[in-house]
Automatic annotation (TrEMBL):
UniProt GO BP: iron-sulfur cluster assembly
Name of the protein: Iron-sulfur cluster carrier protein
Keyword Ion transport appears in the UniProt entry: no
Binding site for ATP: G23, K24, G25, G26, V27, G28, K29, T30
Domain of life: Bacteria
A Pfam family recorded for this sequence: ParA
Family: Belongs to the Mrp/NBP35 ATP-binding proteins family.
Entry keywords, A to Z: ATP-binding, Hydrolase, Iron, Iron-sulfur, Metal-binding, Nucleotide-binding
Molecular function in Gene Ontology: 4 iron, 4 sulfur cluster binding; ATP binding; ATP hydrolysis activity; ATP-dependent FeS chaperone activity; metal ion binding
Annotated function: Binds and transfers iron-sulfur (Fe-S) clusters to target apoproteins. Can hydrolyze ATP.
SUPFAM superfamilies associated with the record: P-loop containing nucleoside triphosphate hydrolases
Subunit description: Homodimer.
């Protein structure tokens, strides 16, 4: 089957393609991609999660590890089944643990083509992409292989210093003729007993929203217990019920579904 036919098939089977991007690392892209995916899956959507952070693939660790893809009869990759409604695929499932992945652009491009065209994703409502930070090869390859997607979610933290990098990421997405779905402000605030504190300041997301005329899709609090759970591979929406951060992810999932369907 030609590459174009494979991608056309994928586009026919998947209702919405959503990428998660940020200006820089460590702001919570993978956290957002994973918990958005579990929240959507719990809401009854069929979800796929593709880890496209080839050099820092963290999706599997945050999902609890030991899930493996298989090879289908037609020699296509069958993604690992995480929940009844959630499939995931990451390069970390295919290489030896702890080994660095030293790949240049063309090799990454080939891998991304296979993750899209040679993978049996089945019918999905959402295919979510966890990208590395910034404007590198992975996002370029994704847009090149898939064409126009439903939207890119930009993850940021509130401090103004981070904003220059975020602006570059947004400009990159727009230059690629892709739609920015909105911004998610992670580590927005922290609740200490009855007091709310703002370790990274406030106002960053609103500033961006106004500047680029894009919605704020969610504000996720900082929560040390959440960090522990994420480290243990326990998604917040499954293992930290009735918490403020869980509610924040559910609200984000609703906003993303609404924005994608609009
Ligand atoms: N809202 C949050 N509260 C507490 N810890 C968080 C939160 N968001 C992310 N983290 C932690 O911060 C670290 C970086 O997050 P990660 O999602 O890996 O960022 P990125 O993918 O952007 O590099 C991880 O250890 C994660 O568990
Ligand atoms: Mg990450």
């Amino acid at each position: 089957m030609s590459e174009d036919i494979k991608i056309a098939e994928l586009r026919k089977n998947v209702k919405h393609f959503i990428a998660v991007l940020s200006g820089k690392g460590g702001v919570g892209k993978t956290t957002v991609a994973v918990n958005l995916s579990t929240a959507l899956a719990e809401n009854g959507y069929k979800v796929g999660l593709l880890d496209l952070d080839i050099h820092g693939p963290d999706v599997v660790r945050m999902l609890g590890g030991n899930a493996y893809p298989t090879m289908g009869e037609d020699e296509r990759i069958v993604p690992a089944l995480i929940l009844p409604n959630l499939k995931a695929l990451s390069i970390s499932m295919l290489v030896e643990e702890g080994k660095p992945i030293i790949w240049r652009g063309p090799l990454k491009h080939t891998a991304i083509k296979q993750f899209l065209g040679d993978t049996d994703w089945g019918e999905l409502d959402f295919l979510i992409f966890d990208l590395p930070p910034g404007t590198g090869d992975e996002a370029l390859s994704l847009f090149q292989v898939l064409g126009t997607i439903d939207g890119v979610i930009i993850v940021t933290t509130p401090q103004k210093v981070a904003l220059d990098d975020v602006r570059r990421a947004i400009a990159f997405v727009q230059t690629m003729n892709q739609r920015v779905l909105g911004v998610v402000e992670n580590m927005s605030y922290m609740r200490c007993k009855d007091e709310i504190v703002y370790p990274f300041g406030t106002g960053g997301a609103e500033l961006l929203a106004k500047e680029f005329n894009i919605p704020v899709l969610g504000k996720i609090p900082m929560d040390p217990k959440a960090l522990e759970l994420l480290d243990e591979g326990k998604p917040i929406t499954l293992y930290y019920r009735e918490s403020e951060i869980e509610r924040a992810f559910r609200e984000l999932a609703e906003n993303v579904a609404r924005a994608a369907e609009a």
